[in-house]
Amino acid sequence: MAEAEAPADPPPRRRRRRPLWIAAQVIIGLGLGAAITEWAFAARDDHAFPHANFYLADPELGVRLEPGAEMRFRLHDNPISTIHVNQEGFRGGEWPAAGGADEVIVVGDSQVFGLGVDDDATFSAKLAEKTGRSVINGGVPTYGPAEYLATARALLEERGAKTVVVALNFVNDPFELDRPNRERHAVWDGWAVRAETAPAELTEFPGRRWLMSRSHAVYALRRWLHDQGRGRAPEGESVTPMDLGTPSEGDLGDLVGRSKEAHAAADAEVEEAERALGISRERLELLPDEIEGKRQDLDRVLLRAYDLHRSFDLEDRRVARAEPGDIVIDTHAEASRSAPVTAALIREAARNRRRALKELLKREAKDGTHEAGDLVKAEGDLQAERQRLLAELAAGAPPPTRPPSIFREYLAELKALCDQHGAALVVVALPIDVQVDPAEWAKYGIADAPDMAESLILIDDLIADARELGLRAVDATPALRAAEPGAFLDGDIHMTAKGHAALADALADALAAPIVPPLRPPALGLPAGRSFAPARDEWSADDDLMVRGSSAAGCLAQIEREWLRVQCHREKLKDRLLAVEVLEGATPATMALRTEDTLSLLTPMTVGQSITARFRWKSAVRDLEVRWPEDEEGKPHFAGAFVEVADPPDLDPALAPPPEATAAAADPMCLLHILITREVRCVDPDTRWFGERLPEGCRSACINVFGDRGLLGACEAAFPEREASARLSCVQNDPLFAPPCPEGQVHAFASNRCFAACDPDHPCAEGTCTPWQGGGVCL
């Protein structure tokens, strides 16, 4: 019988299954543990991350958003918000079809994107609700000015919108202006990180993207490792807006410092200009005495040359340098000379002086001497210097040149892009939270808060640049300040839903308002070829004009540069002076004045422009007709005549003089003139006296007065009682004594009156906007 076979060994396969089962159990256990861990950390975080985790790399923009991405987001202890990215790769729901003419494109960074608030709480969404317009939220976290420009260009080309809003964020945009995002950020497993901290290469494995970007447990681990590697910050220390920027970019303090230095340099230039003007003013005050000295030296040369001739004797010299009021006498004495005779004597003496000087200059040219010629040239040079200094002082120191903001060139480039596409550009200046409210420092654990008031100069400069470029500009500071407390997230710089809503309201108001560029006021001073009215001491009988009928009218006409002056005096005591009015050719600088002693006209002339002025006496009315055409050689040729008006219209009641019994004593123009000039009128023209009291037969007179009576109130307010000379110069349109103008008004047309500035965008409330010196004034 054969032996029984021994049983076979169990299959080795069953022994191999046990390690696999154990491995499977381990894997299942680890997976279950990982899932529980993930669930625990996700539950702890409420399934929210404090950073966006849906970035894709972009070679031009640095990063872009993953289309269709969605996440829950929370910063610190702020409420959780939900973020959706549409298929276009931007925040919010899907966009409507392109082509809406009223569509608004908003570009910016995380403030525009709306980190910390829901899709429908961003100011873009609120703006759409308020205006009923389609609003595209083109904000992307990490972007800077260069990316705003690129985004605006792409969206304008794609959608053809007619409004672009750029929100410039003072947290970081000033530091990112010249540094594109591709140099600042890189994408690491869906996160946007600083380029300098990104790894050089990554080890790819299945599920890495989800694990590294969506796992709360992995995020917690990486965050723990990061904190361990850098060491914990000292207790109480936190990142604040002042810590933003890099050593190479600087920080907000550096920007403020540079801006203040630029403004200080501009102010220093103005101070230097004002110092130079002070020197010019001192020089100008000395010139009248120097000019008079040259005239006296020339008179002595003339007298010495003609001491044996009656054509220019001492009496001629005295009369030729006089004015009618210096020797005019009252007509109530039978033996006295009348005013017309006196004026004629002055004209004759002046002619004799000019004739003598002309002969002397010819003799010197023949003899090779230059004494009189040098004096004439010296006086002319002094007069030219006087006019140059006067024009320089009237123009004043240039206003401080506001330094451009760091965004000036950028705004111009963005505006050019919008202009190319027919779109309007709106600039929003977004301040830092601590610029809006110092109380925001508390959330960073800083008790001794820095004063941010000086940093607001950066926002002011940006808004000013935008408006100078003709753009709508919104300073978000007032709106956000009104929304405080609660306009910003706790422990963070981003706006809350309340802050977004406040900004949307301000932006909606700006979009509804018309674009009104800032008013460009006229430049100070006068156009080339024009001058200010000659001062009192510049008039001389040497300037007498031949005006037909002037002697019969008792008038003296003179011209100095382009200025015409006419003085008509009271010929008879009973023949009362009534009025002088300019019918044709008046300018804002024309000064027509009536007193008891004179009718005075002082007005600038323009070649080719006619002037007609009506002079009224109780017994007669005469029109002065002045023509100043060019002759065949292109030189102005003066012609004037007094023409009696046979049947004049009635005098405008507004020009009627006050009762004669009170006029002289109550006329402030005369009182001011007499106080400064001490002009008198005597029965005997040879009367001489010393001291304050006038001799018998003499009285104070207001004969050679001229000025603008309408300036009396402003000049009295500008110059106190003790400054009578300044007040008289003020009413005589001396630009060095011009009264200050209210805001929005300027001096113009060689007049000390104030005129409202205007331009096509700022029309006149009254009158017509008249071009003047690069701007306009209301006449």
Description of the molecule:
α10 packs across α12 (339-367). The protein has 779 residues and is of the alpha/beta class. The strands form nine sheets. Strands 7-6-8-11-12 form a five-stranded parallel beta sheet, sandwiched between helices. Strands 13-21-20-19-16 form a five-stranded mixed beta sheet. Strands 14-15-18-17 form a four-stranded antiparallel beta sheet. The longest helix is centred in the middle third of the chain and has 54 residues, at 252-305. It is elongated.
SSE class = alpha/beta
Question: DSSP strand (E) fraction?
Answer: 15-25%
Low-confidence stretches: 230-238, 244-250, 324-341
Please tally the helical runs, counting DSSP H or I stretches of 4 or more residues.
23
Spatial sequence of strands, sheet with the most strands = 7-6-8-11-12
Q: Calculate Rg over CA atoms.
A: 43 Å
Layout of secondary structure:
Blueprint (H helix, E strand, L loop, with lengths): L11 H33 L3 E2 L5 E4 L3 E4 L4 E4 L7 E4 L19 E5 L1 H4 L9 H9 L3 E5 L5 H15 L3 E7 L3 H4 L4 H4 E4 L2 E4 L13 H7 L1 H15 L21 H54 L8 H7 L3 H4 L11 H29 L3 H25 L12 H13 L3 E7 L2 H4 L19 H13 L3 E4 L1 H7 L13 H16 L34 E2 L1 H4 L1 E6 L2 E7 L7 E8 L6 E4 L3 E7 L6 E7 L3 E7 L11 E6 L15 H7 L1 H10 L2 E3 L15 E3 L11 H7 L5 H8 L13 E3 L6 E3 L12 E4 L2 E4 L1
Parallel strand pairs: 1-4, 6-7, 6-8, 8-11, 11-12, 13-21
Antiparallel strand pairs: 2-3, 4-5, 9-10, 14-15, 15-18, 16-19, 17-18, 19-20, 20-21, 22-23, 24-25, 26-27
At a glance:
About 40% of the residues lie in helices and about 15% in strands. The chain is built from 23 helices and 27 strands.
